[in-house]
Fold this sequence. Notes:
By secondary structure, this protein is an alpha/beta fold. The chain has helices at residues 3-11, 18-29, 35-48, 52-63, 92-101, 120-124, 136-146, 159-169, 177-189, 211-227, 249-260, 266-282, 289-301, 304-315, 321-324, 351-363, 402-415; strands at residues 79-83, 106-110, 148-152, 195-202, 231-238, 246-247, 334-339, 344-349, 377-380, 387-388, 393-399, 416-419, 430-435. The longest helix is centred in the middle third of the chain and has 17 residues, at 211-227.
Amino acid sequence: MRPLDLIRKKxxxxxxxxxxxxxxxxxxxxxxxxxxxxxxxxxAVVIRGMSRPELSxxxxxxxxxxxxxxxxxxPGAKVDKHSTGGVGDKTSLIIAPVVAAAGVTVPMxxxxxxxxxxxxxxxxxxxxxxxxxxxxxxxxRVLKSCGCGLIGQTAEIAPADKKLYALRDVTATVESPxxxxxxxxxxxxxxxxxxxxxxxKTGSGAFMKTEKDSxxxxxxxxxxxxxxxxxMVALITDMDQPLGLxxxxxxxxxxxxxxxxxxxxxxxxxxxxxxxxxMLYLAGRTPSVDAGRELADEVIRNQYALKKFREIVVQxxxxxxxxxxxARLPQAQNRVPVLSPASxxxxxIQCEQVxxxxxxxxxxxxKKDDVIDPAVGLVLHKKVGDPVQKDEPFCSVHYxxxxxxxxxxxxxxxxYRVAEKPPAVRRPLIHRVISGKGAQA
Length: 441
Ligand code: URA
């Protein structure tokens, strides 16, 4: 087989056989195909798309480029959740302990912040001492001991994705539903899970801005997972404004602790409980999603989830005192409000701008090797629909560097739109549920 023929075939709209796709992925992972040929093939995929059998073959080849965890020695079903990324999207830190506290194993391999969106690993690392770089054998030990582990992708998991993702990032080939699906699913399926709940975000702070595009990606991922024998469901959830009130790594950990203490913002709690309920249902822990919701509420109410979170933090080397006293989490030195220029109602919040504001404060990376400032971020005082007076604060900026402040402030000023009346239509938090055949509620 020659890469040139396979690039030409895709360029001309042909359908590749699974052994041809397998050859490309294997040879590229072993450095036997140069970046420029793989980039040409990826671009042909972006433009021409893929058939479902091609997508399955790509996902499977990427999945089997590395180790696939076998967790069959841990009793019971194992489930995970994956989010396509958003702003203030911190639900993993709540869901994982909730579901583990309810007795279901959660082997969660997460990512870092990407673009304007935050990442679970960056949030976890704001807990002093928390180690996300466990080896796979340490990961197993933590899973067995407390039913949940939260780590980053290791060199053994889907190495083809690691290489392909880096290439896509610099060749304008990220934005392809097929390539996104194969990338996400190859990593998630390597976790040795039985079921997966996908949180596919939609709106101004999501990578997929329209519900139609989000639903298309969700359908691809649900179908791909099902074909590989997994129970799958995707929830299309709203990301047209930040989730919760806090954006920034340590601030988001603090907000998750609030929710597990039975407080915190209602939207964050609702989305977290809904996703956890589906995980409990897919795992067979509850006979229905409704029962899953009740159980998730119960483990939050009786503080079992918080206790489980403490256990996970201890198992992974973190300072659990930060859970009881969030002042032990990194704190920014300065705070300044961003004021409303007019009285009225918050009509819209450009969510991506809010994510970029947090990023420019140092909460995310502009370049791959940038070091994150875990303390910085924003606390929102107003969300869509809230009344606001002139000179009342929209939000507070938590910052450490004067040099970074002014661009964050102007992004936030532009992000908020004030109107005379509240918005006529309120967007739902959960737009749609797309369930696979094995996961009908
Ligand atoms: N997240 C991933 O892991 N892969 C993609 O391609 C896009 C988002």
